[in-house]
Amino acid sequence: MSGTRRLAQTLVLVPAAFLAAGVLADPGARWTETSLASPTDSESTAQLDTGSESSLRQRIREMVDVMSGHTYGGRFMHVRGDEIELMRVVHREIEGQRAELLVAENGEVREIRRLGDRCACIWPEREQVMLGDYPNITSRLAGERFESIESIDDTYRMVSLGRSRVAGESCDMMAIVPTDEYRYGYKLCIGQEVPLLLRMSMYDERGQPIEHNQFTQIESLDRVELFFQDDLVADIDSDFEVIELGGEPVENAPIREENWVIDPLPSGYSIKSRNWRRNPVTGQYFEHLVVTDGLATASVFVEEGRGEASRDASRTRQGMKIAARAVDDTRVTAIGDVPSATVEALVANTVREPGQADEADSESGN
């Protein structure tokens, strides 16, 4: 694959990869409360707590509030398949904006900086910087993922799993269990003394683990200065190549005249954001739609260009699913940490708004 083609794919797929987390139609055959309450990895050393779902939601709300404004630093481990990443994190709030620094401590040298919705991903060995406005990009142990906890009553239920310990801290373990096939399940451990998210694991529709994220060391900080808090690309060598991850924003893309809709959306999902961009490498225009159920998130890309497109969902990084199809001269792609049923439904139901499809068929002579 050529460098240009790899870069073109990166510009579209990296944002989705960042966004980068059950009991299904047949709960007896899938993820059950009983199986979740009896972990086999000896992670929970206490009896199952009978806490109500409302009290568990309250704990998550407390965690989200504390993590958004709290200043802390530490190290965490991210495990996905046979990949293990060790990251150092520093988090603080600056004038109402969340600022975060993530530094990889194994593998390729890399650094992620975040200031508000703006992100920079830096690869010193490649001499490359990727920039983008992505409010959904957070560390895997950020509380923001759970900000909409009040909106998931119909699609998930919560189960207490008692007490545990993470990074030397006592914490409350709980499961967030999906009620259908359109979303994955989660297991959280929230600190007791300070309600920080110390662990977050994600499980597929069969109850098998997809990924684990867990602090190995964490501490509250009274004060910390982030060197990039006034300039996201501070101290970056001027010779580094700078690339806009999402492509160039556009106002009058030709494809924008076609109003694409997702109808119907998978149960419980809604469109969170949509933006038009131009890929600076290929010159093609694309629309990026972010859909969410308040917890799970997926991206849909509508892009100009003919080509082969399969509607078969496939794993891209153990658990992250992708599906695509061609509609005349347009390619529709869906990707996310969601089950195959979700990306398949998103791709199948992304269509031109009724009326426009008839016009397109007429113009093509069909």
Offer a quick outline of the entry.
The protein has 366 residues and is mainly β. The protein has five helices and 21 strands. The chain folds into two domains: 3-220, outer membrane lipoprotein receptor (LolB), chain A (Clam); 247-363, MucB/RseB, C-terminal domain (Phosphorylase Kinase, domain 1, 2-Layer Sandwich), CATH 3.30.200.100.
Explain what the structure shows.
It is a single chain. The protein is mostly beta strands. It folds into two domains: 3-220, Clam (outer membrane lipoprotein receptor (LolB), chain A), CATH 2.50.20.10; 247-363, MucB/RseB, C-terminal domain (Phosphorylase Kinase, domain 1, 2-Layer Sandwich). Helices cover 15% and strands 40% of the residues. It has five helices and 21 strands. It has helices at residues 3-18, 33-36, 53-69, 340-348, 356-363; strands at residues 72-80, 83-94, 97-104, 111-115, 118-123, 128-133, 156-166, 169-178, 185-191, 197-203, 209-220, 241-244, 248-249, 260-262, 270-278, 285-292, 297-304, 314-315, 321-327, 330-336, 350-352. It has a twelve-stranded mixed beta sheet with strand order 7-8-9-10-11-1-2-3-4-5-6-12, covered by helices on one side. The protein has a seven-stranded antiparallel beta sheet with strand order 13-15-16-17-20-19-18, sandwiched between helices. β16 and β17 (297-304) form a beta hairpin. The protein is globular, with a radius of gyration of 21 Å. Mean pLDDT is 80; it is low at 1-50.
